[in-house]
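Re: [help] complex structure
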Amino acid sequence: MSLIHIDNLSKDFRILNRREGLGGAFRDLFSGDYRTIEAVAGISFDIQPGEIVGYIGPNGAGKSTTIKMMTGILKPSGGIIEVNGRAPYDNRIRQAQIMGVVFGQRTQLWWDLPVIESFKILREIYKVDQKTFDRHMNMFNDLVGLGALYSQQVRTLSLGQRMLCDITASFLHNPQVVFLDEPTIGLDISIKAKIRSVIKELNSERNTTIILTTHDLGDVEALCQRIIIIDKGKILYDGDIKKVNALFGAYRTLKLQINNFNEKTIQTLTDKLCEQFGTENGITVAETEEFWTDVTIDQARTPLSDVLNFVMSNFKVDDVRILEISMENVVRKVYDGALG
Amino acid sequence: MRIYLPIARATFMVGLVYRFGFLFTIIGNVVYLGVAYYLWKSIYHYSEVIRGLTFNETFLYVGVGSAVFVLLKTYADWFIHYEIREGNIANYLTKPVDYQIYNLFANLGSLLVSLLAISIPTAIMLGLVFRVKVAFGIGLVLFPIGLFLAFLISFSIDYFIGLMGFYSESVWGLSITKEIIVTVLSGALIPLQFFPDAIQRVLYWLPFQAIYHTPLMMLTRPNQGLNVFLPMMAIQLVWAVLLFIAARLFYNQAIKVLRIAGG
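Output below.
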């Protein structure tokens, strides 16, 4: 039996149309002018026990809304949602016992107290007995090495340390499923790697199901076997990471600041690249922010270094940056049929 | 209920962390007692008894009143409103806890910290510095119960206002208004005996006087009979239960705004 069963799930929000200015604000007081936004528009999937699923998509895609429905915070507008065979919003307190949640942007730890106090409070709230608690704490200590931090006030922890504590805290009551909402947001590379290995260990040690939302494709690559891509409330892709992996791996974005940038630059650059590398070159050119030209390159077809050399010798370039492909670009590629 | 005890313990510890807040609470109260002493001394300059109260009784009332004011001021309304507005309430909704009971126990912890910070200094000031005399009677025994019931009423009102966070971006105006109404109508500022009789009769039935006037009467006039205290406590109890239930119903209604409209 699947742990999470979602069938044709949807969620609408009614939002008041706000008018401009002071007069508008007054009229809004009596306004009945609502518009409906479909944050989640009929999604279906099943998640099996022990899976790590990457749930990704650009900002406003409906990720958090889905998570909030799975955790019982939001009530769905339509469709079926079951976690461990029960509707989350009707059994909030009972369901809370079998799940753990980490919202990357906010902490569940007590800000002013030593870390260990938060763990003790959670132990009581989730009714974990002392023996199990001690065993878990020892395990976390072996895994994360947080022992030294336990006596520190949460407010004095670095963001990365706090996140490690938050994640281990969400596993304290041995939940069947843990929701990690942007767990690596704002962290540097080394602590990200640490967090990923901790998540992986906890998953394999306990066979805990993990639903991970993230903006960092590195998280997904490192952790998930399965990936669900969502955009505008609909599922674009649900399946093996390997297929998508090729997509992340092969694409790079070259950001160029071209001297004397004008409205013709994009067109000229596109034409010259076609001349040099042929029309089926896997290169797209776009202006994303002022004075910056983004050249997205499929390395399977044209090597990045060739493009870079060509651009540098043909244009006067003030500044260059090379980026891994962004979430927005992955979604665009999926729309363009990259996953066939 | 047992699972909420550590919450009270934790807020108690948080209170102890802020040692300077502790200190300034004491200093602020000592200054207030000094000012109130000279104010009421001059009011009592020309007569021994005003509206049935001697200077000793009035000053005890006002002095202990200021301490009770500090005790019951838990800022629950500001705190809950903030948690709702910032979306931190999601942390509670994903835990097997009841939000109202959780907050009740959190406030109980702060109450105990304030009790520690305020009761001993106030007792020393009133007893040793100002030589205020306390009469003996059944009221002294009832005082802790009256104070606890007052805390429950005060908490429910604050919790109720905090929940307005589901509907409103700012709770500032509402909180200040509540503060003024409670301070004046509860007898926290001036003993209720100084009010006109007709108003006193109305106030007797309202929840506000149950917060300050009732426990303060137990302390300033402890030698009154149970026939005076029991009805007062019954009113306290009724308000405590009514407001607790009302706040609970309001939460069930308000949470729908979040659960349907999103956080």
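The two ends of chain B are 28 Å apart (CA to CA).
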